[in-house]
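Forum: Protein Structure Q&A
Topic: Joint prediction for protein chains with partners

I've read a bunch of threads here and the consensus seems to be that you should model interacting components together rather than docking separate models afterwards. I'd like to see that in practice. Below is the full input, 376 residues plus whatever partners are listed. Could one of the regulars post the assembled result?
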Amino acid sequence: MNPVNSSHWAILTDVTKCIGCESCVEGCREANHTGEDRPWAWQNGVRDLSASRWTTIDRLPGNHYIRRQCRHCISPACASACPVGALKKTPEGPVVYDAVKCMGCRYCMMACPFQIPRYSWDSAVPAVRKCVLCHDRIERGEATEPACTASCPTEATVFGSREELLKEARKRIEAAPELYRNHVWGETEAGGTNVLTISDVDIPLPNTVPTDALPERTWAALKTVPYAFIGAGVGMLGLRWIMGRRNELREAEARAQAARAEEEARAAAEECEE
Amino acid sequence: MMDTRSARLRTVKGALWFIVGIAAIVGVARFLAGLGAVTNLTDRTPWGLWVGFDVMGGVALAAGGFVIAAMVYVFRSERFRPLLRPAVLTAFLGYMAVAVGL
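Posted by a regular:
Agreed with the consensus. Here's the joint model:
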């Protein structure tokens, strides 16, 4: 099956096959015109993800190379947090970005449990930068798979449909259980992601990565917003009416009292005259 | 008496204009060198003090406007009506600061 026509594009990275050549990084840089790496002062070296490096390879002791990129969560926290809908989960699978809509609030960077999105801090018109699974290029027909998987010389990272790649991952683990850890990274993390990894070492993930989908947690609170909004509005209108009515009654009472006092004064004056 | 007061006023005005001048320079630098250069924000701390101070200052400032508006319009307390316009203006400026600072 051609993965471009399947509903869920995915990437499977096999850490045991990766030789750390960074062809994927260079392929991504060329295809997405991310520009040269600048030595951003705050990074763990120039190899860390940045606005100019959408995928990178983490080097673990013992020559283990672990490719890091946006994992394209099935239920992405970044798209859920984005107040203007600049980040969007496409039906095909990739989480894509629209720089025109983006207002640069960086909510996505705070929301992402994998800490992936990066910001072009040195630009006058800054944008959020992250892997988009080459969605735009594939949609335009310029490519049939992402630049990273296309440029991998050892097929350590491959493109396909999520269902097929999950099966493939399970098959590889079963074929060599002494080599692989019995875990497919991305199968359940953060509610499941479209980027899967199998490995012979544990893959260090930030401790912010949950086992369930984050947007479902926020939705539990956010779905009550319309009711809270209308409820508070109605409550305040009611309060306004009550206070207005109370003021009215108080004024009427004061007027009546004044009238009575006037009446009494006039009566007293008349009595005096008599 | 009159002279010392206007002299003091001039000092305060000078100080305020000085701050505006610095802000203008920083504002120009932001469009020349980008947000990172003027805020020292990074990919590790995408919000940092910048948003912390902005939200604390701006939104808290706007809360005063809400309270005064609620006093006048919801609780119908005419006693606070003279404060209404400046309070709402300050609240608006607070939110403007949030939006611009973002």
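The mean pLDDT of chain A is 89.
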